[in-house]
Design a protein that fits this description.
The chain is mainly alpha-helical. It has a single domain, classed as Growth Hormone, Chain: A (Up-down Bundle), CATH 1.20.1250.20. 75% of the residues lie in helices and 1% in strands. A two-stranded antiparallel ribbon has the order 1-2. Helix 4 runs antiparallel to helix 8, helix 5 (77-101) packs across helix 14 (317-347) and helix 9 packs across helix 14.
Protein backbone atom coordinates (compact mmCIF):
# COMPACT_ATOMS: atom_id res chain seq x y z
CA UNK A 1 0.00 0.00 0.00
CA UNK A 2 2.89 2.39 0.68
CA UNK A 3 4.06 1.88 -2.91
CA UNK A 4 0.61 2.92 -4.11
CA UNK A 5 0.47 6.00 -1.88
CA UNK A 6 3.86 7.15 -3.16
CA UNK A 7 2.98 6.41 -6.80
CA UNK A 8 -0.40 8.14 -6.58
CA UNK A 9 1.17 11.15 -4.88
CA UNK A 10 3.84 11.39 -7.55
CA UNK A 11 1.24 10.95 -10.29
CA UNK A 12 -0.83 13.81 -8.85
CA UNK A 13 2.21 16.07 -8.59
CA UNK A 14 3.68 15.29 -12.03
CA UNK A 15 0.51 15.06 -14.11
CA UNK A 16 -1.68 17.60 -12.30
CA UNK A 17 0.83 20.20 -11.21
CA UNK A 18 -1.21 22.83 -9.31
CA UNK A 19 -0.09 23.07 -5.72
CA UNK A 20 -3.64 23.31 -4.39
CA UNK A 21 -4.43 19.92 -5.93
CA UNK A 22 -1.47 18.36 -4.13
CA UNK A 23 -2.69 19.86 -0.86
CA UNK A 24 -6.22 18.54 -1.40
CA UNK A 25 -4.85 15.12 -2.36
CA UNK A 26 -2.86 14.77 0.84
CA UNK A 27 -5.71 16.16 2.95
CA UNK A 28 -7.95 13.44 1.53
CA UNK A 29 -5.19 10.93 2.20
CA UNK A 30 -4.81 11.75 5.91
CA UNK A 31 -7.91 13.52 7.27
CA UNK A 32 -10.54 10.74 6.82
CA UNK A 33 -8.40 8.19 8.66
CA UNK A 34 -8.74 9.59 12.21
CA UNK A 35 -12.43 10.35 11.66
CA UNK A 36 -13.42 6.90 10.40
CA UNK A 37 -11.06 4.67 12.40
CA UNK A 38 -13.31 4.23 15.49
CA UNK A 39 -16.27 3.28 13.28
CA UNK A 40 -14.07 0.87 11.32
CA UNK A 41 -13.12 -0.74 14.63
CA UNK A 42 -16.81 -0.99 15.57
CA UNK A 43 -17.49 -2.68 12.23
CA UNK A 44 -14.73 -5.21 12.93
CA UNK A 45 -16.12 -5.97 16.40
CA UNK A 46 -19.66 -6.38 15.09
CA UNK A 47 -19.15 -8.26 11.81
CA UNK A 48 -15.84 -10.05 12.27
CA UNK A 49 -12.22 -9.72 11.21
CA UNK A 50 -12.45 -11.95 8.14
CA UNK A 51 -15.30 -9.95 6.62
CA UNK A 52 -13.54 -6.66 7.32
CA UNK A 53 -10.27 -7.87 5.77
CA UNK A 54 -12.04 -9.23 2.68
CA UNK A 55 -13.95 -5.98 2.18
CA UNK A 56 -10.82 -3.87 2.58
CA UNK A 57 -8.65 -6.02 0.32
CA UNK A 58 -11.23 -6.55 -2.42
CA UNK A 59 -12.04 -2.84 -2.33
CA UNK A 60 -8.33 -2.05 -2.56
CA UNK A 61 -7.98 -4.33 -5.59
CA UNK A 62 -10.91 -2.70 -7.38
CA UNK A 63 -9.55 0.74 -6.55
CA UNK A 64 -6.12 -0.16 -7.92
CA UNK A 65 -7.52 -1.73 -11.09
CA UNK A 66 -9.54 1.42 -11.76
CA UNK A 67 -6.43 3.49 -11.11
CA UNK A 68 -4.45 1.41 -13.62
CA UNK A 69 -7.18 1.95 -16.23
CA UNK A 70 -7.11 5.70 -15.60
CA UNK A 71 -3.32 5.79 -15.90
CA UNK A 72 -3.18 3.66 -19.05
CA UNK A 73 -6.03 5.39 -20.89
CA UNK A 74 -5.10 8.83 -19.56
CA UNK A 75 -8.75 9.46 -18.66
CA UNK A 76 -10.40 10.64 -15.48
CA UNK A 77 -7.89 13.38 -14.87
CA UNK A 78 -7.03 14.68 -11.47
CA UNK A 79 -10.44 13.85 -9.99
CA UNK A 80 -9.89 10.12 -9.87
CA UNK A 81 -6.26 10.43 -8.80
CA UNK A 82 -7.43 12.31 -5.71
CA UNK A 83 -10.43 10.02 -5.24
CA UNK A 84 -8.20 6.93 -5.35
CA UNK A 85 -6.16 8.31 -2.47
CA UNK A 86 -9.31 8.92 -0.42
CA UNK A 87 -10.73 5.47 -1.14
CA UNK A 88 -7.42 3.90 -0.16
CA UNK A 89 -7.50 5.75 3.17
CA UNK A 90 -11.06 4.64 3.96
CA UNK A 91 -10.26 1.00 3.21
CA UNK A 92 -7.09 1.17 5.29
CA UNK A 93 -9.10 2.04 8.40
CA UNK A 94 -10.86 -1.33 8.18
CA UNK A 95 -7.67 -3.19 7.36
CA UNK A 96 -5.62 -1.76 10.21
CA UNK A 97 -8.34 -2.19 12.85
CA UNK A 98 -8.78 -5.83 11.85
CA UNK A 99 -5.06 -6.66 11.71
CA UNK A 100 -4.26 -5.05 15.05
CA UNK A 101 -7.13 -6.71 16.92
CA UNK A 102 -6.99 -10.22 15.46
CA UNK A 103 -3.85 -11.42 17.29
CA UNK A 104 -5.61 -12.91 20.37
CA UNK A 105 -7.82 -14.99 18.07
CA UNK A 106 -4.93 -16.59 16.19
CA UNK A 107 -2.00 -16.70 18.61
CA UNK A 108 -1.61 -18.37 22.04
CA UNK A 109 -1.35 -15.93 24.91
CA UNK A 110 2.30 -16.76 25.59
CA UNK A 111 3.21 -15.62 22.05
CA UNK A 112 1.44 -12.24 21.94
CA UNK A 113 4.75 -10.40 22.24
CA UNK A 114 6.33 -12.35 19.40
CA UNK A 115 3.28 -11.87 17.19
CA UNK A 116 3.34 -8.10 17.73
CA UNK A 117 6.99 -7.90 16.67
CA UNK A 118 6.39 -8.56 12.94
CA UNK A 119 3.56 -6.01 13.07
CA UNK A 120 6.29 -3.41 13.56
CA UNK A 121 8.00 -4.55 10.38
CA UNK A 122 4.82 -3.65 8.49
CA UNK A 123 4.85 -0.22 10.11
CA UNK A 124 8.52 0.33 9.27
CA UNK A 125 8.01 -0.73 5.68
CA UNK A 126 4.99 1.54 5.25
CA UNK A 127 6.50 4.63 6.86
CA UNK A 128 10.18 4.36 5.94
CA UNK A 129 11.01 1.68 3.39
CA UNK A 130 7.86 1.95 1.25
CA UNK A 131 8.58 5.40 -0.20
CA UNK A 132 12.28 4.52 -0.46
CA UNK A 133 11.63 1.31 -2.41
CA UNK A 134 9.05 3.07 -4.57
CA UNK A 135 11.58 5.83 -5.30
CA UNK A 136 14.11 3.21 -6.41
CA UNK A 137 11.52 1.36 -8.50
CA UNK A 138 10.49 4.57 -10.22
CA UNK A 139 14.01 4.85 -11.58
CA UNK A 140 13.40 1.70 -13.66
CA UNK A 141 9.60 1.58 -13.96
CA UNK A 142 6.66 3.93 -14.35
CA UNK A 143 4.03 4.54 -11.63
CA UNK A 144 1.49 2.42 -13.49
CA UNK A 145 3.82 -0.60 -13.38
CA UNK A 146 4.19 -0.22 -9.62
CA UNK A 147 0.41 -0.06 -9.17
CA UNK A 148 -0.01 -3.17 -11.37
CA UNK A 149 2.50 -5.02 -9.20
CA UNK A 150 0.52 -3.90 -6.16
CA UNK A 151 -2.59 -5.47 -7.70
CA UNK A 152 -0.85 -8.86 -7.79
CA UNK A 153 0.19 -8.53 -4.15
CA UNK A 154 -3.37 -7.67 -3.12
CA UNK A 155 -4.65 -10.77 -4.93
CA UNK A 156 -2.28 -12.86 -2.80
CA UNK A 157 -3.57 -11.10 0.33
CA UNK A 158 -7.18 -11.83 -0.64
CA UNK A 159 -6.34 -15.52 -1.13
CA UNK A 160 -4.65 -15.71 2.28
CA UNK A 161 -7.63 -14.11 4.06
CA UNK A 162 -10.16 -16.19 2.12
CA UNK A 163 -8.45 -19.47 3.05
CA UNK A 164 -7.75 -18.52 6.68
CA UNK A 165 -9.98 -19.59 9.56
CA UNK A 166 -10.48 -16.65 11.90
CA UNK A 167 -12.73 -17.35 14.91
CA UNK A 168 -15.66 -15.05 15.55
CA UNK A 169 -15.77 -13.12 18.83
CA UNK A 170 -19.00 -13.58 20.76
CA UNK A 171 -20.47 -10.32 22.02
CA UNK A 172 -21.67 -10.25 25.64
CA UNK A 173 -25.35 -10.94 26.20
CA UNK A 174 -25.83 -7.43 27.59
CA UNK A 175 -24.77 -5.74 24.33
CA UNK A 176 -27.67 -4.36 22.32
CA UNK A 177 -27.42 -5.99 18.86
CA UNK A 178 -29.23 -3.14 17.10
CA UNK A 179 -27.43 -0.16 18.65
CA UNK A 180 -25.59 2.24 16.36
CA UNK A 181 -21.89 2.09 15.59
CA UNK A 182 -21.57 5.40 17.44
CA UNK A 183 -22.90 3.78 20.62
CA UNK A 184 -20.42 0.96 20.12
CA UNK A 185 -17.59 3.50 19.97
CA UNK A 186 -18.86 5.28 23.10
CA UNK A 187 -18.93 1.95 24.97
CA UNK A 188 -15.29 1.35 24.06
CA UNK A 189 -14.32 4.87 25.19
CA UNK A 190 -16.01 4.30 28.55
CA UNK A 191 -14.19 0.99 28.88
CA UNK A 192 -10.85 2.73 28.35
CA UNK A 193 -11.67 5.36 30.98
CA UNK A 194 -12.70 2.79 33.56
CA UNK A 195 -9.60 0.63 33.19
CA UNK A 196 -7.12 2.97 34.84
CA UNK A 197 -3.83 3.35 33.04
CA UNK A 198 -4.97 2.36 29.55
CA UNK A 199 -5.97 5.88 28.56
CA UNK A 200 -2.64 7.21 29.84
CA UNK A 201 -0.87 4.62 27.72
CA UNK A 202 -2.81 5.73 24.63
CA UNK A 203 -1.79 9.31 25.40
CA UNK A 204 1.85 8.30 25.64
CA UNK A 205 1.67 6.61 22.24
CA UNK A 206 -0.06 9.69 20.81
CA UNK A 207 2.80 11.85 22.10
CA UNK A 208 5.32 9.59 20.40
CA UNK A 209 3.27 9.75 17.18
CA UNK A 210 3.20 13.55 17.30
CA UNK A 211 6.95 13.47 17.77
CA UNK A 212 7.28 11.35 14.64
CA UNK A 213 5.16 13.85 12.72
CA UNK A 214 7.46 16.67 13.76
CA UNK A 215 10.52 14.56 12.96
CA UNK A 216 9.38 14.12 9.37
CA UNK A 217 10.11 17.82 8.94
CA UNK A 218 12.93 18.45 11.41
CA UNK A 219 15.04 15.42 10.51
CA UNK A 220 14.83 16.25 6.81
CA UNK A 221 15.85 19.85 7.46
CA UNK A 222 18.71 18.73 9.70
CA UNK A 223 20.13 16.21 7.22
CA UNK A 224 19.70 18.39 4.15
CA UNK A 225 21.48 21.23 5.95
CA UNK A 226 24.83 19.43 5.68
CA UNK A 227 24.24 16.55 3.26
CA UNK A 228 22.43 15.68 0.01
CA UNK A 229 19.64 13.32 -1.01
CA UNK A 230 21.96 10.32 -0.75
CA UNK A 231 22.58 11.23 2.87
CA UNK A 232 18.85 11.46 3.54
CA UNK A 233 18.37 8.02 1.98
CA UNK A 234 21.17 6.63 4.15
CA UNK A 235 19.52 7.95 7.33
CA UNK A 236 16.11 6.59 6.28
CA UNK A 237 17.66 3.21 5.57
CA UNK A 238 19.33 3.17 9.00
CA UNK A 239 15.98 3.98 10.63
CA UNK A 240 14.28 1.13 8.77
CA UNK A 241 17.06 -1.28 9.71
CA UNK A 242 16.63 -0.26 13.35
CA UNK A 243 13.01 -1.37 13.24
CA UNK A 244 13.92 -4.57 11.38
CA UNK A 245 16.56 -5.56 13.94
CA UNK A 246 14.24 -4.75 16.84
CA UNK A 247 11.49 -6.79 15.18
CA UNK A 248 13.77 -9.81 14.79
CA UNK A 249 14.84 -9.50 18.42
CA UNK A 250 11.20 -9.44 19.57
CA UNK A 251 10.33 -12.46 17.43
CA UNK A 252 13.18 -14.40 19.04
CA UNK A 253 12.98 -13.15 22.65
CA UNK A 254 9.60 -11.44 22.86
CA UNK A 255 8.72 -8.04 24.25
CA UNK A 256 10.04 -6.95 27.68
CA UNK A 257 8.79 -9.19 30.51
CA UNK A 258 7.59 -6.08 32.38
CA UNK A 259 5.70 -4.31 29.64
CA UNK A 260 5.08 -0.87 31.15
CA UNK A 261 8.63 -0.31 32.51
CA UNK A 262 9.97 -1.68 29.23
CA UNK A 263 7.83 0.80 27.31
CA UNK A 264 9.14 3.69 29.40
CA UNK A 265 12.76 2.52 29.04
CA UNK A 266 12.32 2.35 25.26
CA UNK A 267 10.76 5.83 25.36
CA UNK A 268 13.79 7.17 27.20
CA UNK A 269 16.14 5.57 24.65
CA UNK A 270 14.04 7.12 21.88
CA UNK A 271 14.39 10.57 23.48
CA UNK A 272 18.14 10.25 24.06
CA UNK A 273 18.65 9.13 20.45
CA UNK A 274 16.81 12.22 19.17
CA UNK A 275 18.97 14.51 21.29
CA UNK A 276 22.14 12.72 20.16
CA UNK A 277 21.16 13.00 16.49
CA UNK A 278 20.97 16.78 16.81
CA UNK A 279 24.29 17.17 18.64
CA UNK A 280 26.51 17.62 15.56
CA UNK A 281 26.05 17.78 11.75
CA UNK A 282 27.42 14.28 11.22
CA UNK A 283 25.83 11.68 8.93
CA UNK A 284 27.12 8.69 10.89
CA UNK A 285 25.84 10.14 14.16
CA UNK A 286 22.40 10.74 12.66
CA UNK A 287 22.27 7.26 11.11
CA UNK A 288 23.22 5.50 14.36
CA UNK A 289 20.81 7.66 16.35
CA UNK A 290 18.03 6.97 13.85
CA UNK A 291 18.75 3.24 14.11
CA UNK A 292 18.42 3.36 17.91
CA UNK A 293 15.38 5.67 17.87
CA UNK A 294 13.37 3.54 15.45
CA UNK A 295 14.39 0.33 17.18
CA UNK A 296 13.13 1.80 20.45
CA UNK A 297 9.94 2.89 18.72
CA UNK A 298 9.31 -0.70 17.62
CA UNK A 299 9.58 -1.85 21.25
CA UNK A 300 7.20 0.91 22.40
CA UNK A 301 4.50 0.01 19.88
CA UNK A 302 4.85 -3.77 20.29
CA UNK A 303 4.64 -3.43 24.09
CA UNK A 304 1.57 -1.20 23.72
CA UNK A 305 -0.11 -3.73 21.43
CA UNK A 306 0.63 -6.58 23.85
CA UNK A 307 -0.79 -4.70 26.85
CA UNK A 308 -4.00 -3.96 24.94
CA UNK A 309 -4.34 -7.58 23.82
CA UNK A 310 -3.95 -8.73 27.42
CA UNK A 311 -6.09 -6.15 29.22
CA UNK A 312 -8.97 -5.34 26.83
CA UNK A 313 -11.96 -7.62 26.24
CA UNK A 314 -11.72 -9.33 22.80
CA UNK A 315 -15.12 -7.99 21.70
CA UNK A 316 -13.84 -4.40 22.25
CA UNK A 317 -10.41 -4.68 20.65
CA UNK A 318 -11.41 -3.38 17.21
CA UNK A 319 -12.94 -0.22 18.68
CA UNK A 320 -10.08 0.35 21.13
CA UNK A 321 -7.53 0.11 18.34
CA UNK A 322 -9.73 2.37 16.23
CA UNK A 323 -9.69 5.00 18.98
CA UNK A 324 -5.94 4.53 19.28
CA UNK A 325 -5.53 5.07 15.54
CA UNK A 326 -7.57 8.26 15.78
CA UNK A 327 -5.47 9.68 18.61
CA UNK A 328 -2.09 8.83 17.12
CA UNK A 329 -3.06 10.08 13.64
CA UNK A 330 -4.40 13.40 14.93
CA UNK A 331 -1.27 13.81 17.03
CA UNK A 332 0.89 12.99 14.01
CA UNK A 333 -0.87 15.60 11.88
CA UNK A 334 -0.50 18.23 14.63
CA UNK A 335 3.21 17.43 14.98
CA UNK A 336 3.72 17.59 11.23
CA UNK A 337 1.89 20.89 10.74
CA UNK A 338 3.36 22.35 13.93
CA UNK A 339 6.88 21.67 12.72
CA UNK A 340 6.10 23.31 9.39
CA UNK A 341 4.63 26.41 11.04
CA UNK A 342 7.54 26.77 13.46
CA UNK A 343 10.03 26.19 10.68
CA UNK A 344 8.50 28.83 8.45
CA UNK A 345 8.03 31.41 11.21
CA UNK A 346 11.25 30.97 13.19
CA UNK A 347 13.84 29.21 11.07
CA UNK A 348 13.31 30.63 7.61
CA UNK A 349 16.15 32.85 6.40
CA UNK A 350 13.59 35.34 5.08
CA UNK A 351 12.05 35.90 8.52
CA UNK A 352 12.80 39.32 9.98
CA UNK A 353 12.51 40.72 13.48
CA UNK A 354 12.82 44.46 14.21
CA UNK A 355 14.11 44.96 10.69
CA UNK A 356 16.96 42.46 11.11
CA UNK A 357 17.28 39.08 9.43
CA UNK A 358 17.06 36.07 11.72
CA UNK A 359 19.82 33.70 10.62
CA UNK A 360 20.40 31.78 13.86
CA UNK A 361 19.63 28.13 13.37
CA UNK A 362 19.26 28.35 9.59
CA UNK A 363 22.47 29.55 7.95
CA UNK A 364 24.75 29.67 10.98
CA UNK A 365 24.76 29.61 14.79
CA UNK A 366 26.34 32.75 16.21
CA UNK A 367 25.86 31.86 19.88
CA UNK A 368 28.86 29.86 21.22
CA UNK A 369 26.69 28.37 23.97
CA UNK A 370 24.11 27.14 21.48
CA UNK A 371 26.81 25.93 19.11
CA UNK A 372 28.24 23.80 21.92
CA UNK A 373 24.96 21.85 21.99
CA UNK A 374 23.99 21.61 18.32
CA UNK A 375 27.10 22.57 16.35
CA UNK A 376 27.28 25.21 13.64
CA UNK A 377 26.16 25.39 10.03
CA UNK A 378 23.04 25.31 7.86
CA UNK A 379 20.05 23.45 9.20
CA UNK A 380 21.08 23.61 12.86
CA UNK A 381 17.84 25.36 13.76
CA UNK A 382 16.05 22.16 12.82
CA UNK A 383 18.60 20.29 14.93
CA UNK A 384 17.75 22.51 17.91
CA UNK A 385 14.07 21.80 17.36
CA UNK A 386 14.79 18.05 17.27
CA UNK A 387 16.85 18.25 20.47
CA UNK A 388 14.02 20.06 22.24
CA UNK A 389 11.62 17.34 21.09
CA UNK A 390 13.91 14.71 22.60
CA UNK A 391 14.11 16.63 25.88
CA UNK A 392 10.32 16.95 25.93
CA UNK A 393 9.79 13.21 25.41
CA UNK A 394 12.32 12.43 28.16
CA UNK A 395 10.53 14.82 30.52
CA UNK A 396 7.19 13.14 29.86
CA UNK A 397 8.70 9.69 30.41
CA UNK A 398 10.04 10.93 33.76
CA UNK A 399 6.60 12.30 34.65
CA UNK A 400 4.95 8.94 33.92
CA UNK A 401 7.62 7.12 35.91
CA UNK A 402 7.33 9.22 39.05
CA UNK A 403 3.87 10.83 38.92
CA UNK A 404 1.55 8.25 37.31
CA UNK A 405 1.12 5.31 39.71
CA UNK A 406 -1.99 3.97 37.93
CA UNK A 407 -0.01 3.64 34.72
CA UNK A 408 2.89 1.88 36.44
CA UNK A 409 0.61 -0.56 38.30
CA UNK A 410 -1.56 -1.30 35.28
CA UNK A 411 -0.12 -4.76 34.64
CA UNK A 412 -0.86 -5.86 38.21
CA UNK A 413 -4.10 -3.99 38.82
CA UNK A 414 -5.89 -4.95 35.60
CA UNK A 415 -6.68 -8.64 35.08
CA UNK A 416 -5.88 -10.41 31.82
CA UNK A 417 -9.06 -10.90 29.76
CA UNK A 418 -7.75 -12.91 26.80
CA UNK A 419 -9.67 -15.85 25.30
CA UNK A 420 -7.26 -18.15 27.17
CA UNK A 421 -8.29 -16.60 30.49
CA UNK A 422 -11.96 -17.29 29.83
CA UNK A 423 -11.63 -21.01 29.15
CA UNK A 424 -10.08 -23.84 31.18
CA UNK A 425 -6.54 -24.21 29.85
CA UNK A 426 -3.37 -26.06 30.88
CA UNK A 427 -1.32 -24.19 33.45
CA UNK A 428 1.47 -23.42 30.98
CA UNK A 429 -0.98 -21.56 28.73
CA UNK A 430 -2.10 -19.32 31.60
CA UNK A 431 1.37 -18.31 32.80
CA UNK A 432 1.34 -14.52 33.29
CA UNK A 433 4.85 -14.15 31.89
CA UNK A 434 3.89 -16.07 28.78
CA UNK A 435 4.27 -13.09 26.49
CA UNK A 436 8.02 -13.61 26.46
CA UNK A 437 8.71 -17.26 27.31
CA UNK A 438 10.01 -19.55 24.54
CA UNK A 439 7.69 -21.92 22.75
CA UNK A 440 7.93 -25.63 23.50
CA UNK A 441 10.56 -27.43 21.48
CA UNK A 442 12.41 -24.21 20.74
CA UNK A 443 9.90 -23.06 18.13
CA UNK A 444 8.65 -19.51 17.86
CA UNK A 445 5.45 -18.16 16.44
Amino acid sequence: MSFTVFAVGLNIYVDFDPFWLVVIGYAILFVPFPILSPFAGAFVDRYGHRRALLISNIGTLLNLVALVVVMVTDSGGSLYAVSAAGISTILRTLQLAAIESVVPLLVPKRHYGRANGPRMLMTATFVLAGPLFAYLLLSVASPVVIVMAECLLVVVAIYVVFTSRIPLVKRPDGDAPDQSLWRDVVDAWRHLRLRHGLLTMVGFLALVSGTLGALEITSSGTVMGFSDYEGAIAVSTACWLGMVVATIAMVVWGVPSRLVPGMLAAGLMFAVALAAASFRPDLILMSVSGFIAMGSLAVIIASFQTVVHLKVEPHLLGRVFGLKNTSVTLSHIVGDLGAIVIGVSLLSASFTSNGQRREDGWEEVSSPVLAAFIGNGPGRGWALFMMLIGVGVAAYVAYLRFRSPAFLRMEKDLPDVTPADRLPQPTEDLAPVGVTEPASGGRSA
